[in-house]
Design a protein that fits this description.
The chain has 22 helices and eleven strands. By secondary structure, it is α+β, with helices and mostly antiparallel strands.
Length: about 500
C-alpha cells in the first residue's frame, strides 16, 4: 500500500531485508490483531494490556463496544525494538507509529518498553494514538485540536495496576516543563481558537501540555463540572470554539490563572477504573507457518507504506521470498500488494490469482485482484470491462460486509472509468466512512460526493471533523477551512474545485 498523503511521513530508505524466523506469532483478541516475533507469552501479555486499556477507556467514557471483524480491529506489529521502528520511519526519535485508513488502521510498536525522555515510553505513545483511534471511531463530533490532543495525553499515562484496575489521568511528567509554564506563553485566547497553525514549536508543545492540564482540570475540579460538555455542545451547535469557550468557561483570563494554580498542586492524581475481566474476551495465539513467517518483512514494509523509490526494491524482495511458496495464499497476496505498489499490475494480478486458487475467500487477494484489474482496465481505455473489475470488490464485500476498503474501491471504479457513480456506489462510500471514520481522504471523498448530489448540509457535517485534524499540515487545515466557508456560503462549485485541486496526487 502506498503511503497516504495524510499519514505519517514516507520512509527515507528501504528497511534491510530480515531473515525469516520460526518464532513469529499472531495473537487475536477482541479489538486487536497482533503480529510479533517474540514468544507466545509476550504477545499474550501485550494483548491483555491493550485490551485492559481499551476497556478502561470505554468504561470511563460510557462507550459502546460492538463486535468487530478482523477488518475493524486494530492491527499491531510488535517489533523487537525502537531500531526496527527507526528503519521504517527513516528517523531515530520515534517510539511508535499509528496510521488510520480505510484498508485498516495500523500500529507499529516496539516490544521492549523503550523510553525516550522522562517517563515517555512506547506504551505512552501507543495509548495516546489508540485514544485518537477510539475517539474518532465512535464520535462524529467536531472537536478542537487542544481537546483532541489534551484528551489523548490524559489517557496516555494509563497505569495497569496489579489488582486488575487501570488508572487514567495520571501526571504527565514528561511534559512537566510545559505543564508548569506560565499561561502567558500560550494564553487560552490563543489555544482555544479555531486553529493552531501560527503557533511556534514551543507553543505547539504547550498545546499538548496545557491541553492535558485543561482536560484534567475540567474533569476533576468540582466547581467546573459540566463545563467541558457545555463547551463541546456549543461547537456542535455552530458556535466558534473561542465563543463557545467564553460561554461555557466564563472569563478565560481567570481560567488561565486557575490553571496555573492547579498545575502547582503537589498531587495531580488520576481516576481508578475497574475492569470487568469477562469483557476482555479470549486471546488466541498461534505460530505463523513457515511461509507466513518468511514473507513478514515484506508484509510489514508494505503495510507501513512505500514510495515510488522504495516500492521496486520491496517488490524484488517479495518475489525472492515468495518463490518457494507459490501456492500459499498469505504469501501470494502479500506479493500481489508489493507488485501493485511497484506499478507491476499484471504481476500483481497473477499473484492474486495464485492466492485465490488456494483460498477463494482470501480478502486481501480479492482486493488486490480488483485493484490490479482497475489499473489494467484504465490503461486499456475503450472496451474495458468495468463490471468485471467491480465484481472483485463485490466478492470481497461478501466475505466481510464490514470492511470499508472494498466499499470505497467499488465507488472508486466509477471515477476511474469516467462514469457517474451509481446510487449503490454512493451509498457504499458513505457506509465506508461509517466503518472507517479515521480515514481523512475517505471522508473527503464522501464530502465531494455529497456536494455533487447537492446534499450540502450533510457535506458540511461530514467535513467538520477535518477542520481541526491535529496531525494534518497547516496547508491542509487552511484548505479545509476554505472548503467549509464555501459550503457554509452554499457555494458548492468553489468547494468542489478546492477539493479537486490536487486530486491527481492521491491514490
Amino acid at each position: 500500500m502506498r503511503r497516504s498523503l495524510l499519514s505519517f511521513a514516507a520512509a527515507l530508505a528501504l528497511a534491510a531485508a530480515s531473515p525469516a524466523h520460526a518464532d513469529w506469532f499472531k495473537a487475536s483478541s477482541k479489538h486487536f490483531v497482533i503480529y510479533g516475533d517474540g514468544t507466545p507469552n509476550e504477545l499474550r501479555e501485550f494483548a491483555t494490556k491493550v485490551e485492559r486499556f481499551d476497556q478502561a477507556v470505554r468504561n470511563a467514557r460510557a462507550m459502546e463496544d460492538p463486535p468487530l471483524t478482523d477488518s475493524n480491529r486494530l492491527t499491531i506489529y510488535l517489533l523487537k525494538n525502537v531500531g526496527e521502528l527507526a528503519r521504517l520511519e527513516g528517523r531515530g526519535d520515534i517510539l511508535g507509529i499509528y496510521t488510520a485508513r480505510a484498508s485498516g488502521s495500523l500500529a507499529f510498536v516496539a516490544r521492549n518498553k523503550a523510553e525516550w525522555k522522562g517517563d515517555m515510553d512506547s506504551d505512552v505513545v501507543f495509548f495516546h494514538e489508540y485514544s485518537h483511534h477510539l475517539l474518532l471511531q465512535n464520535s462524529t463530533a467536531v472537536l478542537p485540536s487542544w481537546l483532541i490532543e489534551g484528551f489523548a495525553e490524559f489517557l496516555s499515562t494509563a497505569k495497569m495496576n496489579p489488582d486488575g484496575t487501570v488508572t487514567l489521568g495520571g501526571a504527565l511528567n514528561f511534559r512537566s516543563q510545559g505543564v508548569l509554564s506560565n499561561h502567558h506563553e500560550l494564553p487560552l485566547t490563543m489555544m482555544l481558537r479555531d486553529t493552531f497553525g501560527d503557533l511556534t514549536l514551543w507553543q505547539e508543545e504547550l498545546l499538548y501540555a496545557r491541553g492535558w492540564l485543561l482536560t484534567h482540570y475540567l474533569t476533576f475540579e468540582p466547581s467546573r463540572r459540566g463545563q467541558l460538555d457545555k463547551y463541546v455542545a456549543g461547537i456542535q451547535q455552530g458556535q466558534k470554539p473561542i465563543d463557545s469557550a467564553w460561554a461555557a468557561f466564563g472569563d478565560l483570563k481567570r481560567l488561565d490563572w486557575d490553571l496555573d494554580s492547579y498545575a502547582n498542586r503537589k498531587n495531580l492524581s488520576g481516576v481508578v477504573i475497574n475492569i470487568d475481566q469477562a469483557k476482555l474476551g479470549s486471546i488466541a495465539v498461534r505460530p505463523l507457518t513457515t511461509a507466513e513467517a518468511a514473507i513478514m518483512p515484506v508484509r510489514i514494509r508494505s503495510e507501513y507504506g512505500v514510495g515510488s523509490r522504495t516500492a521496486p526494491g520491496v517488490a524484488e524482495q517479495a518475489r525472492k521470498l515468495a518463490a518457494p511458496f507459490a501456492n500459499d495464499p498469505f504469501v501470494q497476496s502479500a506479493l500481489a500488494e508489493a507488485e501493485y505498489d511497484a506499478s507491476n499490475y499484471a504481476a500483481a494480478d497473477a499473484a492474486a490469482d495464485r492466492a485465490l486458487a488456494a483460498d477463494p475467500r482470501n480478502l486481501h487477494a480479492l482486493i488486490y485482484k480488483g485493484r490490479a484489474q482497475m489499473k489494467l482496465a484504465k490503461a486499456k481505455g475503450t472496451g474495458a470491462d468495468w463490471n468485471e473489475v467491480r465484481s472483485w470488490f463485490l466478492k470481497a464485500n461478501k466475505v466481510d460486509t464490514e470492511d470499508a476498503e472494498p466499499l470505497a474501491l467499488f465507488y472508486r471504479t466509477f471515477k476511474e472509468a469516467g462514469q457517474t457513480p451509481s446510487k449503490n456506489a454512493s451509498g457504499a462510500l458513505l457506509y465506508a466512512v461509517t466503518l472507517a471514520p479515521q480515514d481523512d481522504y475517505l471522508r473527503l471523498m464522501a464530502v465531494r460526493q455529497l456536494l455533487v448530489e447537492s446534499r450540502t448540509q450533510e457535506a458540511r457535517t461530514m467535513l467538520a471533523p477535518l477542520a481541526y485534524q491535529p496531525h494534518a499540515t497547516g496547508e491542509f487545515r487552511s484548505k479545509m477551512t476554505k472548503v467549509m466557508d464555501a459550503i457554509s456560503a452554499s457555494d458548492a462549485k468553489t468547494a468542489l474545485s478546492l477539493i479537486d485541486a490536487d486530486e491527481d496526487k492521491k491514490d
